[in-house]
Design goal:
This protein is mainly beta and about 375 residues long. It has three helices and 29 strands.
């Protein structure tokens, strides 16, 4: 299996001889073939990859929910080691309404800036805007460029007039009409891309920012296939091209997944105002209010159950935790360090183990390497 690559000069080993070659930054196909006595056999694997950005590494990521792999941008290069977690964002596809029952022109996409900083949908170095490059055709405005602020949602629709007649979006939400194409009811790929290099014909290529290959059939939520529901991201900061990352719910263009935000939830607990902050811990069980909210636990009752369970029965060790999927505006991060006295906390990638209703169990694997390690759950 070809597991990782970057776009700088590399070398191939050919029966004792090393042959230099390079990889294209606008995409190509890699082949790994076996040979016996200089004669190729039928054993071959290949990986087709698209355009990527300078310094970006692409690699395999396993989706536990379907036991399949995607070859995608990763957070960091890891030559000779296990691949790092997927690079997610800075903009993600957060809602897809592809099979409206009453009017096919009501279909829409929602994009979300999951970072803490503004993100221009324009590349000032290449003087080119970002685009939706698969599923539909839309080039984002360039004069002036469109900038999404932190946490801002942008809605894209097939028909602005039909959309406005059917939906009311939160004040300040921008809605754009795409130019051509429509979201296929039988499922297809939708990709948000940012400008990359030019191919041999001088045509601009686009590097993947986010991509969703949705489908009308299980394991994708069937409720979005003509039953009046949209696909909505369960956890907005999670890897999106995975059916376990989505649920079918009443469309909420421009707004988070249905559910009470933290501010409403903590007010309803009846706590004094000075104990309602996200970092406060009124029951002194080591879980601040925001983490109690994300895990679905009670901020007024000390919980003796450990929120993070570790098993050393296997190598690498496994860690697992449960979280609520109906808690908008919060993401849980699993982090590790070797030094509690000022050491750097590093985020560990997690994957879905089980989803039941609004509860989801996530799991991480980490090699011990005979070193003392500390782990924590952090809510943002």
């Amino acid at each position: 299996m070809l597991s990782e690559q970057q776009h700088f000069g590399v070398a191939s080993l050919d029966v004792g001889r090393i042959t230099g070659f390079a990889l294209s930054d606008v995409g190509e196909t890699l082949y790994l073939s076996s040979a016996i006595d200089d004669h190729l056999t039928d054993d071959r694997t290949e990986e087709k990859f698209g355009a990527s950005l300078p310094g970006e590494t692409l690699g395999n990521y396993r989706k536990a929910s379907t036991d399949t792999w995607n070859f995608i941008p990763l957070q960091t290069p890891t030559p000779g080691k296990a691949n790092s977690a997927p690079r997610i964002g800075p903009i993600v596809i957060s809602e897809i309404f592809y099979a409206a029952t009453t009017d096919p022109d009501l279909e829409f996409l929602e994009l979300l800036n999951i970072t803490t900083t503004p993100v221009p949908l324009y590349d000032s170095v290449r003087n080119a805007p970002w685009s939706i490059t698969d599923g539909i055709a839309l080039e984002f405005p360039s004069n002036p460029p469109l900038i999404l602020t932190s946490g801002e949602r942008l809605v894209l629709t097939r028909s602005l007039s039909h959309f406005n007649a059917a939906f009311t979006v939160p004040t300040g939400t921008r809605v754009l009409e795409w130019t051509t194409g429509r979201l296929a009811n039988e499922g297809e790929s939708v990709q948000l891309g940012r400008p990359a290099g030019l191919d041999d014909a001088g045509v601009r290529q686009f590097a993947r920012v986010d991509r969703v290959n949705y489908d009308r059939s299980a394991p994708w939520p069937p409720g979005a296939a003509g039953l009046g529901h949209s696909l909505q991201k369960r956890i907005e900061g999670a890897y999106g091209n995975d059916p376990s990352a989505w649920l079918a719910a009443t469309p909420t263009p421009g707004a988070a997944l249905m559910g009470a935000p933290f501010s409403d939830w903590i007010t309803a607990q009846g706590l004094p105002i000075d104990q309602q902050g996200p970092g406060q811990d009124p029951d002194r069980d080591g879980r601040p209010n925001l983490l109690e909210f994300a895990l679905g636990s009670d901020p007024l009752t000390a919980d003796t159950r450990l929120p993070l369970l570790m098993s050393l029965a296997t190598e690498p060790a496994t860690l697992r935790f449960d979280l609520r999927l109906d808690r908008p505006g919060v993401t849980i991060h699993l982090q590790t360090t070797t030094d509690l006295r000022g050491g750097t906390w590093t985020e560990l990638p997690t994957e879905v183990l089980l989803t039941e209703g609004s509860m989801q169990t996530r799991i991480a694997r980490h090699a011990s390497n005979n070193a003392t390690r500390f782990f924590r759950l952090v809510a943002h």
